[in-house]
Amino acid sequence: MQPRNDWTREEIQHLYEQPFLDLLFQAQQVHRAHFQPNQIQVSTLLSIKTGKCPEDCKYCSQSAHYDSQLEAERRITVEKVVQEAQIAKASGSSRFCMGAAWRNPHERDMPYVLEMVKEVKALGLETCMTLGMLNASQAERLKDAGLDYYNHNLDTSREYYSHIISTRSFDDRLNTLDHVRQAGLKVCSGGIVGLGENQQDRIGLLHELSTLPIHPESVPINMLVPIAGTPLAELERLDVTEWIRTIAVARILMPNSYIRLSAGRESLSDSDQALAFMAGANSLFSGEKLLTTPNAGAGQDQRLFKKLGLQVEKARPSISQLGIDAMA
Ligand code: SF4
């Protein structure tokens, strides 16, 4: 059955507000109908250019607008990226995500990122990048270089967006997602909870994601990690059940998408993470750091997977690695 993309806000609100255990049960049923229930996809995220970002995302340590004490780093070399990708592969990751703190890549950056995609792809890993806004030609060139996924989060609801970011608009985000889709790339797009938004905003975010013409293949649901020096540093922590509700509703609305636990996971207990998996999360970032925020390390994850009996999904070979001409 084709996943629906005509969800109404009322339907989503109804799903979101049902008793917690009913919601979890429903989400787990949807999950089992679409995925191997005990399998988890693991990605690794590497920052290829850190800090001094001209954007003003209020949650981000990398924004040049705030004094988060983050040490900015220039672009790292392609050789270093390839080394990190090899380590990620050896520790079980099937996808390698490369992120740069840019508003958008400049033309002078394109040869650098294109070479990186080719080299990481040649290791047999799926590739993902998050570089900010893209124009149509940049998206096409990334696709031609072998990029599999492009990450571009909607962050929050359309209504709340301007409270969090003023240097770009919600429609700018949607335009980039459109270029990414038109180029034939897979989409990774989700948001962050705990930004001071209300429940209607979480429902609004889920509504935007689940009514895109094609659902994102990957939907990261982050929990704010408050960073000293940023405007959201002192925000009261959102109750973890609201995060798990958001994950569960995402699973029901987008049954074929991988729902990913991202930032904020390192502050969760094993049992909270198990609840998130029960709610339908089936993907996560592994590694000591998520760009600049702390994350559960690979060893900690292996221990948790063993405890819960979760199997790590293997990278699927691409068409070119199977020796068949690309059809897309
Ligand atoms: S979230 Fe991305 S775009 Fe926003 S300030 Fe941080 S690095 Fe820049």
At the fold tier of CATH, the topology name is: TIM Barrel
* Rg estimate, integer Å: 19 Å
Shape: globular
Total helical elements: 11
Strand % is: 15-25%
Mean pLDDT: 89
Which CATH-level-2 architecture?
Alpha-Beta Barrel
N-end to C-end Cα span: 23 Å
For CATH, the homologous superfamily is named as: Aldolase class I
Ligand names: iron/sulfur cluster
Q: Return the structural class.
A: alpha/beta
* Largest sheet, strands/sense/barrel: 10 strands, parallel
Family: Belongs to the radical SAM superfamily. Biotin synthase family.
Cofactor: [2Fe-2S] cluster; [4Fe-4S] cluster
InterPro entries: Aldolase_TIM, BATS_dom, Biotin_synth/BioAB, Biotin_synthase, Elp3/MiaA/NifB-like_rSAM, rSAM, rSAM_sf
Protein name: Biotin synthase
Secondary-structure map:
Blueprint: H1 9-17, H2 20-34, E1 39-49, H3 78-90, E2 95-100, H4 110-121, E3 126-130, H5 136-145, E4 149-151, H6 161-164, H7 170-182, E5 186-188, E6 191-193, H8 199-210, E7 218-223, H9 240-253, E8 258-261, H10 270-278, E9 283-286, E10 289-290, E11 293-294, H11 298-308, E12 311-312
Parallel strand pairs: 1-2, 1-9, 1-12, 2-3, 3-4, 4-5, 6-7, 7-8, 8-9
Antiparallel strand pairs: 10-11
Helix pairs in contact: 1-8, 2-9, 3-4, 4-5, 5-7, 8-9, 9-10
Family: Belongs to the radical SAM superfamily. Biotin synthase family.
Protein name: Biotin synthase
Function: Catalyzes the conversion of dethiobiotin (DTB) to biotin by the insertion of a sulfur atom into dethiobiotin via a radical-based mechanism.
